[in-house]
Protein backbone atom coordinates (compact mmCIF):
# COMPACT_ATOMS: atom_id res chain seq x y z
CA UNK A 1 0.00 0.00 0.00
CA UNK A 2 1.08 3.56 -0.73
CA UNK A 3 0.59 6.58 1.54
CA UNK A 4 1.13 10.29 1.04
CA UNK A 5 2.55 11.27 4.45
CA UNK A 6 3.40 14.93 3.97
CA UNK A 7 0.74 17.14 2.38
CA UNK A 8 -0.61 20.62 3.04
CA UNK A 9 -4.02 22.21 2.58
CA UNK A 10 -4.85 25.90 2.36
CA UNK A 11 -4.94 25.99 6.16
CA UNK A 12 -1.16 26.29 5.82
CA UNK A 13 -0.28 29.88 4.93
CA UNK A 14 1.71 28.83 1.87
CA UNK A 15 -0.62 26.24 0.30
CA UNK A 16 -3.67 26.46 -1.97
CA UNK A 17 -5.24 22.97 -1.94
CA UNK A 18 -8.57 22.47 -0.21
CA UNK A 19 -8.83 19.48 2.15
CA UNK A 20 -11.46 17.98 -0.15
CA UNK A 21 -9.24 18.23 -3.21
CA UNK A 22 -6.26 16.82 -1.33
CA UNK A 23 -8.27 13.70 -0.58
CA UNK A 24 -9.63 13.35 -4.11
CA UNK A 25 -6.26 13.92 -5.81
CA UNK A 26 -4.43 11.54 -3.45
CA UNK A 27 -6.91 8.80 -4.27
CA UNK A 28 -6.80 9.57 -8.00
CA UNK A 29 -2.99 9.43 -7.94
CA UNK A 30 -2.96 5.89 -6.57
CA UNK A 31 -2.49 6.48 -2.88
CA UNK A 32 -4.18 4.34 -0.22
CA UNK A 33 -4.25 7.12 2.36
CA UNK A 34 -3.08 10.67 3.03
CA UNK A 35 -1.73 12.49 6.08
CA UNK A 36 -2.88 16.09 6.44
CA UNK A 37 0.23 17.84 7.76
CA UNK A 38 -0.52 21.55 7.83
CA UNK A 39 1.98 23.92 9.42
CA UNK A 40 1.32 24.18 13.16
CA UNK A 41 -2.43 23.72 12.83
CA UNK A 42 -5.05 20.99 12.58
CA UNK A 43 -7.83 23.16 11.17
CA UNK A 44 -7.93 21.09 7.99
CA UNK A 45 -8.66 17.81 9.76
CA UNK A 46 -12.44 18.14 9.98
CA UNK A 47 -12.96 18.80 6.30
CA UNK A 48 -10.39 16.23 5.22
CA UNK A 49 -11.91 13.53 7.41
CA UNK A 50 -15.38 14.29 6.06
CA UNK A 51 -14.06 14.08 2.50
CA UNK A 52 -12.26 10.83 3.32
CA UNK A 53 -15.49 9.33 4.60
CA UNK A 54 -17.36 10.48 1.50
CA UNK A 55 -14.79 9.01 -0.87
CA UNK A 56 -13.97 5.93 1.22
CA UNK A 57 -10.36 7.06 1.57
CA UNK A 58 -8.28 6.96 4.78
CA UNK A 59 -7.12 10.29 6.21
CA UNK A 60 -4.38 10.37 8.84
CA UNK A 61 -4.55 13.20 11.35
CA UNK A 62 -1.12 14.81 11.38
CA UNK A 63 0.71 18.11 11.64
CA UNK A 64 4.03 19.67 10.67
CA UNK A 65 5.34 21.33 13.80
CA UNK A 66 8.07 23.91 14.27
CA UNK A 67 10.51 22.96 17.05
CA UNK A 68 13.05 24.92 19.07
CA UNK A 69 16.11 24.43 21.27
CA UNK A 70 16.55 27.04 23.97
CA UNK A 71 14.28 29.39 22.08
CA UNK A 72 15.95 29.05 18.68
CA UNK A 73 14.25 27.24 15.81
CA UNK A 74 16.07 24.04 14.89
CA UNK A 75 13.71 22.54 12.32
CA UNK A 76 10.34 20.90 11.78
CA UNK A 77 8.89 17.51 12.61
CA UNK A 78 5.87 15.61 11.42
CA UNK A 79 3.52 14.32 14.07
CA UNK A 80 1.58 11.40 12.58
CA UNK A 81 -1.52 9.70 14.03
CA UNK A 82 -2.36 12.57 16.35
CA UNK A 83 -5.56 13.22 18.29
CA UNK A 84 -5.18 16.95 18.91
CA UNK A 85 -3.18 19.95 17.83
CA UNK A 86 0.35 20.54 19.12
CA UNK A 87 1.72 24.07 19.25
CA UNK A 88 5.32 24.95 18.25
CA UNK A 89 7.58 24.52 21.25
CA UNK A 90 10.92 23.20 22.46
CA UNK A 91 11.74 19.93 20.72
CA UNK A 92 11.51 17.80 23.86
CA UNK A 93 8.10 19.22 24.73
CA UNK A 94 6.75 18.55 21.24
CA UNK A 95 8.22 15.05 21.24
CA UNK A 96 6.58 14.33 24.60
CA UNK A 97 3.18 15.55 23.37
CA UNK A 98 3.38 13.40 20.26
CA UNK A 99 4.24 10.40 22.42
CA UNK A 100 1.38 11.14 24.82
CA UNK A 101 -1.00 10.82 21.86
CA UNK A 102 0.61 7.54 20.75
CA UNK A 103 1.70 9.37 17.61
CA UNK A 104 4.86 9.07 15.58
CA UNK A 105 7.59 11.69 15.32
CA UNK A 106 9.20 11.96 11.88
CA UNK A 107 11.97 14.47 11.27
CA UNK A 108 10.99 16.42 8.14
CA UNK A 109 13.39 17.23 5.26
CA UNK A 110 16.35 17.09 7.69
CA UNK A 111 19.07 18.07 5.19
CA UNK A 112 17.24 20.64 3.05
CA UNK A 113 19.61 23.55 3.56
CA UNK A 114 17.54 25.83 1.31
CA UNK A 115 14.52 25.48 3.58
CA UNK A 116 14.16 24.27 7.17
CA UNK A 117 16.83 21.62 7.75
CA UNK A 118 17.12 20.09 11.21
CA UNK A 119 20.04 21.57 13.12
CA UNK A 120 20.46 19.08 15.98
CA UNK A 121 20.11 15.67 14.39
CA UNK A 122 22.75 13.92 16.45
CA UNK A 123 21.51 15.34 19.72
CA UNK A 124 17.89 14.28 19.18
CA UNK A 125 18.09 11.28 16.86
CA UNK A 126 17.07 8.81 19.58
CA UNK A 127 13.74 10.61 19.86
CA UNK A 128 12.88 10.13 16.17
CA UNK A 129 10.49 7.34 15.13
CA UNK A 130 11.48 7.80 11.49
CA UNK A 131 13.31 10.01 9.02
CA UNK A 132 11.67 11.58 5.98
CA UNK A 133 14.08 10.06 3.46
CA UNK A 134 12.23 11.27 0.36
CA UNK A 135 10.74 14.76 0.23
CA UNK A 136 9.65 15.76 -3.27
CA UNK A 137 10.12 19.48 -2.63
CA UNK A 138 13.87 19.43 -2.08
CA UNK A 139 15.77 21.48 -4.65
CA UNK A 140 18.64 18.98 -4.79
CA UNK A 141 18.27 15.19 -4.72
CA UNK A 142 21.43 15.15 -2.61
CA UNK A 143 19.38 16.38 0.36
CA UNK A 144 17.25 13.23 0.21
CA UNK A 145 20.34 11.07 -0.27
CA UNK A 146 21.80 12.52 2.93
CA UNK A 147 18.55 11.86 4.79
CA UNK A 148 18.46 8.23 3.65
CA UNK A 149 22.09 7.76 4.63
CA UNK A 150 21.44 9.26 8.06
CA UNK A 151 18.52 6.88 8.59
CA UNK A 152 20.63 3.92 7.52
CA UNK A 153 23.54 4.80 9.80
CA UNK A 154 21.26 5.10 12.79
CA UNK A 155 18.90 2.21 12.11
CA UNK A 156 15.90 4.52 11.75
CA UNK A 157 12.79 3.76 9.66
CA UNK A 158 12.09 5.90 6.58
CA UNK A 159 9.06 7.66 5.17
CA UNK A 160 8.36 9.60 2.01
CA UNK A 161 5.99 12.45 1.23
CA UNK A 162 5.51 15.07 -1.44
CA UNK A 163 5.31 18.04 0.94
CA UNK A 164 2.66 19.20 -1.52
CA UNK A 165 1.30 22.73 -1.39
CA UNK A 166 -0.68 22.62 -4.64
CA UNK A 167 -2.56 19.95 -6.58
CA UNK A 168 0.28 19.32 -9.05
CA UNK A 169 2.56 18.00 -6.31
CA UNK A 170 0.34 15.51 -4.50
CA UNK A 171 1.85 11.99 -4.32
CA UNK A 172 5.10 12.96 -6.05
CA UNK A 173 6.66 11.08 -3.13
CA UNK A 174 5.13 8.47 -0.86
CA UNK A 175 5.62 5.77 1.75
CA UNK A 176 5.04 2.13 0.82
CA UNK A 177 4.42 -0.83 3.12
CA UNK A 178 3.23 -4.41 2.71
CA UNK A 179 0.23 -4.05 4.99
CA UNK A 180 -3.53 -4.58 4.90
CA UNK A 181 -4.70 -1.11 5.98
CA UNK A 182 -3.94 2.30 7.43
CA UNK A 183 -4.01 1.09 11.05
CA UNK A 184 -1.15 -1.27 10.26
CA UNK A 185 0.95 1.64 8.96
CA UNK A 186 1.83 2.95 12.41
CA UNK A 187 3.24 -0.44 13.37
CA UNK A 188 5.05 -0.84 10.06
CA UNK A 189 6.82 2.50 10.49
CA UNK A 190 7.84 1.70 14.05
CA UNK A 191 9.23 -1.66 12.95
CA UNK A 192 11.15 -0.20 10.03
CA UNK A 193 9.08 -2.03 7.44
CA UNK A 194 8.37 0.95 5.22
CA UNK A 195 9.98 2.13 2.00
CA UNK A 196 10.23 5.67 0.62
CA UNK A 197 9.92 6.49 -3.07
CA UNK A 198 9.26 9.49 -5.26
CA UNK A 199 10.38 12.07 -7.77
CA UNK A 200 11.53 15.62 -7.23
CA UNK A 201 8.96 18.32 -7.88
CA UNK A 202 10.00 21.09 -10.28
CA UNK A 203 11.54 23.76 -8.01
CA UNK A 204 9.63 26.47 -9.87
CA UNK A 205 6.56 25.30 -7.96
CA UNK A 206 7.99 27.12 -4.92
CA UNK A 207 6.92 30.35 -6.61
CA UNK A 208 3.29 29.43 -5.90
CA UNK A 209 4.06 29.08 -2.20
CA UNK A 210 5.77 32.46 -2.14
CA UNK A 211 2.82 34.14 -3.84
CA UNK A 212 0.45 32.44 -1.40
CA UNK A 213 2.44 33.64 1.62
CA UNK A 214 2.23 37.17 0.21
CA UNK A 215 -1.53 36.82 0.01
CA UNK A 216 -1.66 37.00 -3.78
CA UNK A 217 -3.07 33.51 -4.20
CA UNK A 218 -4.75 32.96 -0.83
CA UNK A 219 -8.26 31.47 -1.05
CA UNK A 220 -10.86 33.92 0.22
CA UNK A 221 -12.91 33.27 3.33
CA UNK A 222 -10.30 31.42 5.42
Radius of gyration over C-alpha positions, nearest whole angstrom = 16 Å
Assembly level: single chain
Kindly report how far apart the N and C termini lie.
34 Å
For the record, the CATH class is Alpha Beta
Largest sheet: 10 strands, mixed
Kindly report the average pLDDT value.
94
Total domains? 1
Please tell me about this protein's structure.
β2 (34-36), α2 and β3 (59-69) form a beta-alpha-beta unit. The protein has 222 residues and is an alpha/beta fold. α1 packs across α2. Helices cover 29% and strands 25% of the residues. The mean pLDDT is 94. It has helices at residues 19-28, 45-54, 91-100, 121-124, 141-153, 182-190, 206-213, and strands at residues 2-7, 34-36, 59-69, 72-80, 89-90, 104-107, 130-135, 158-161, 173-177, 194-198. It has one domain (2-213): Alpha-Beta Barrel (TIM Barrel). The protein starts with a strand and ends in a 9-residue tail after the last helix. Strands 1, 2, 3, 4, 5, 6, 7, 8, 9 and 10 form a ten-stranded mixed beta sheet that branches. The chain has seven helices and ten strands.
Write a brief structural summary.
By secondary structure, this protein is of the alpha/beta class.
